[in-house]
Amino acid sequence: MGGVTTAEPTGPALVVGLANPGPDYEGTRHNIGWEVLQELASRALPMPAGFSTHKKTNCEIAQTRLAGRQVVLARPRSYMNLSGGPTAAVAKYFSVKPTDVIVIHDEIDIDFGQVRLKRGGGEGGHNGLRSLTQSLGTRDYLRVRAGVGRPPGRMAVADFVLKRYSKLEQPDVPFLVQDAADAVELLLQHGLETAQNQVHSA
């Protein structure tokens, strides 16, 4: 009755989009988390959500509802490799347990255009995840992994993720953003196992 799931916590869910700040990084593979966060904000009800600077946590945040849940959308204003501190601060401010944090990030170990979900695991050389793990004190946060593919040839990973998408890839980026946003909403509404079953079978 009432449409509220028994799994819903008393506080809001925290959805974090990893990215580097500033116009130089806009549209790069490393910033896919921020693009997904903006897509989620556009879906918020009863109207699209706007972000504002939350000085106490050094994040840009939007408080809204998604998939029937109260959520805080947050983007750390620090560089990627320092994103753990602001994320931990906003989680503490809104009384969100680390295990209830959903992090959206780029993933080179997944083919471009694919989305995968998991809880915990290693960081795979991703400096943003490493910072999050250190600051949250656990690896057991939820991850929405947006596949950006592997660097070609001998290109360094750091150079690859800071580049913009190829002309061949660019038309498909909006679909990747939408699919990752869909995955976040499935996590919010149904939890990890059901969301994985739907997303990974697509």
Task: Characterise this structure.
By secondary structure, the chain is of the alpha/beta class. It has a single domain, classed as Rossmann fold. 32% of the residues lie in helices and 21% in strands. The chain contains six helices and seven strands; from the N terminus they run E-H-E-E-E-H-E-E-H-E-H-H-H. It has helices spanning 32-43, 84-93, 127-136, 157-161, 173-190, 192-200, and strands at residues 13-17, 52-54, 59-66, 69-76, 101-107, 115-119, 142-147. The chain has a seven-stranded mixed β-sheet with strand order 2-3-4-1-5-7-6, with helices on both faces. A hairpin with a 4-residue loop joins strand 2 and strand 3. Helix 1 (32-43) packs across helix 5 (173-190), helix 2 crosses helix 3 and helix 5 (173-190) packs antiparallel against helix 6 (192-200). The longest helix is centred in the C-terminal third of the chain and has 18 residues, at 173-190. The chain is globular. Pfam families: Pept_tRNA_hydro. The active site is at 30 (proton acceptor). It catalyses: an N-acyl-L-alpha-aminoacyl-tRNA + H2O = an N-acyl-L-amino acid + a tRNA + H(+). The record marks 106 as: Stabilizes the basic form of H active site to accept a proton.
Features of the shown structure:
single chain, 202 residues, alpha/beta, Rossmann fold, seven-stranded mixed β-sheet, 6 helices, 7 strands, globular, disordered N terminus, hydrolase, Pept_tRNA_hydro
